[in-house]
Amino acid sequence: MNFNTANEIDKKVIFEQIEAELQKENFTIVQKDETRPWGGFFVIDEDQAAVFAAKFFPHLEMDKIKITNKLSPKILLVAPNKRLSWQYHFRRAEIWKILAGIVGVKTSPTDVEGELQELTAGNFIQMNKGERHRLIGLDSWGIVAEIWQHTDPENPSDEEDIVRLQDDFGR
């Protein structure tokens, strides 16, 4: 997948570009959100989690990815110079692979933000349940493949399972 991630590219254009690439790969998009102040995301059909993992995380074995029987694949688009909230989750761990652009990531086991790590296309990071984390757009759009690893099979994680410790957008 090739993406134009230049910082001057219009949000609508980059979303169209990602959507076309996902469709070309035969991924079923079940939700698209372009309204996030930091960028947005595409949610891929959970029935395609194994295919998604094989495509974007070929170095991981499915039995190592699955904590429970439920995985939720997404593509995140983080805009230049924007930050997602400093956050953690009670019911999910996450794995990310940078597909395009350069992004910043901060992680920490405590509420104090860790050092900025710059990740480029091909880099991979894994966050445990409860681990604090933040994705940061640097000088260009960042495109990130993400899998939610649901840790509670009786109560899967959702968008409400976000504890925000700091947020640039007052959420």
UniProtKB/TrEMBL annotation:
TM spans (from-to): none
All residue ranges annotated as the Mannose-6-phosphate isomerase type II C-terminal domain in the record: 49-167
Cross-referenced Pfam families: MannoseP_isomer
InterPro entries the record matches: Man6P_isomerase-2_C, RmlC-like_jellyroll, RmlC_Cupin_sf
Gene3D superfamilies: Jelly Rolls
Top-rank taxon: Bacteria
Protein name: Mannose-6-phosphate isomerase type II C-terminal domain-containing protein
Species name: Flavobacterium palustre
